[in-house]
Amino acid sequence: MTIIRALHKLDGATSRGAPVPAAQVTLAETGESFAVEPHETLLAAALNAGVDLAHDCKSGYCGSCRIRVLEGEIAYDEEPAGLSGEERGCGFALACQARVRMALRIEAERMPADRPEPAGIAARVVAAERVCGDITRLRLAPEGGMPAFLPGQYLDLVTETGATRSFSIASAPAQGEIELHIRRIPGGMVTSGLLPEVRPGDPVRLHGPHGLFRLHPGDFRPLLFVATGTGIAPIRAMLAALRDDPDCPPVALYWGMREESELYLAAEIAEIGAALEAFSFVPVLSRADAGWTGRRGHVQEAVLADLSDLPDHAIYLCGSPAMIAEARTRFLEAGASANHIYADCFHFAHNL
């Protein structure tokens, strides 16, 4: 029997004060096992044991560390945002938040073998263009040539103090430049402090690539991209890569913004899409003025109104945590395959 419940207190001891023993977790696919101490999450214990389970944000938002509990019991300090109620009801859990209460047998993905190893990257600023409102398009020339990365991954920008801020790569590997789309966070050390002072030729330190958000060409399904805000950046990189794919499946892109002036990539997206065999682009505005003749409201609602064949799609979600959480839940209710929803959640650090 599988039990997943919320846990209000984990103190490593029973009510009588006796230590709680470590629990064993076994991977159903390989028979490998590792021990999890009461103070550890399942993911932390796996990584400490050298078992490289798939993971990304480690904060319960992106869903990359999703596992399926076949036998045993896990608990959470707080229910993670990156897992829908329907997924929980089917026995899925997030390893980065799960506490192990008894022996488990699980199904779990490993980190992909084709993922490039992160490393330090030295680059110089080519241009910093404010494209709309609070969004800047930062173009960088890496020293020593383009680093290896998969379209959809992100880089950390490293400040002089060693603090980092993560930004998705908007350029394709063949572009020759690293492009980052950066939304200003009021009071942010990097986005409001350092970014306005950047000039062409300035040195920039980066580290990466990071992240599991990437194309899954083995799906052989029509592709549905759903983005809000600068979540369009990694989608742009994916679209640019698909332009060179002779077997590219049909692609539908829904991009949610507030106002028409914020659709800073609309012309480029149309240009890239014209090179694809089957492409549709639907911008959706939540605060459109009276002159807007396109779609209004929330981007996930537009998808549900248009597409009745969600079970047949590979779905890529990128942007705000609220959009991703609702879209994941609503799309699953509409029959989408839980194994074919991939998400990159932009959980902002407000002090950066």
UniProtKB/TrEMBL annotation:
Task: Say which domain of life the source belongs to.
Answer: Bacteria
PANTHER family in UniProt: NADH OXIDOREDUCTASE HCR, PROTEIN RFBI
Protein name as catalogued: GntR family transcriptional regulator
InterPro entries from the UniProt entry = 2Fe-2S_ferredoxin-like_sf, 2Fe-2S_ferredoxin-type, 2Fe2S_fd_BS, Beta-grasp_dom_sf, Cbr1-like_FAD-bd_dom, FAD-bd_FR_type, FNR_nucleotide-bd, MRET
Record PROSITE patterns:
2FE2S_FER_1, 2FE2S_FER_2, FAD_FR
**Which residue intervals define the domain FAD-binding FR-type in the entry?**
118-216
Cite the GO molecular-function annotations of the record: 2 iron, 2 sulfur cluster binding; oxidoreductase activity
Query: What positions does the domain 2Fe-2S ferredoxin-type occupy?
Result: 23-112
